[in-house]
Amino acid sequence: MADLTDEIAASAAQCVVEEGLEYGPAKRRALKMLGLPPRTPLPNNDQVEAQVHEYIAVFCADTQAAELLALRQHALMWMKRLQDFRPYLGGAVWHGTATRLSDIYLQLFCDDEKSCEIELINQGVDFEARTVNGLHGDPVEALSIHSYCKELGEEIGVHLLINEYDDVRGALKLDSQGRSPRGDALAVQRLIDA
Questions:
Q1: Among 109, 118, 164, 189, whose CB has the most other CB atoms within 10 angstroms?
Q2: Angle, alpha carbons 188-189-194 (nearest 5°)
Q3: pTM of the model
Q4: What tens digit of pLDDT does each residue of 127-143 get?
């Protein structure tokens, strides 16, 4: 069974890197690619992430570092533009597994969820609003933007997840590997400088 879980994780990692999928959809795609039934036990996110690191080391070692840097710089630009909403970067761009196909995920924390929409309108930014599951599984508003990244020469998806102001404390709880699941602008700047 462990071999099958490893095979699913490896296939999911390929989907993450080559298609820019998030872990959940990548695991489901891996089941289909491998012809396995939908109820097959799935690897956990740590297993998929380990396979993503391995896949990047083998197939993307010559390009991934520059792409990650460009994505982090682009994320930081948006964090500065939206600094009033206490932005935190998460996902593959924060954890260092992003490639040019990865989207940027920013968690925003504010008292009024409509204030971010108003700010984007004032800045002349087009966005698409939808509802997604937030930090604690509760529905939150997500504002999705297509943003041109000059360093990569293409549009990047930037997703702003609007959380209540006080939810920031729970957002910084360490993950299963003892890492912070997201970072503020100062932490992102440190990653860029490193």
A1: 109
A2: 100
A3: 0.90
A4: 999 999 888 778 999 99
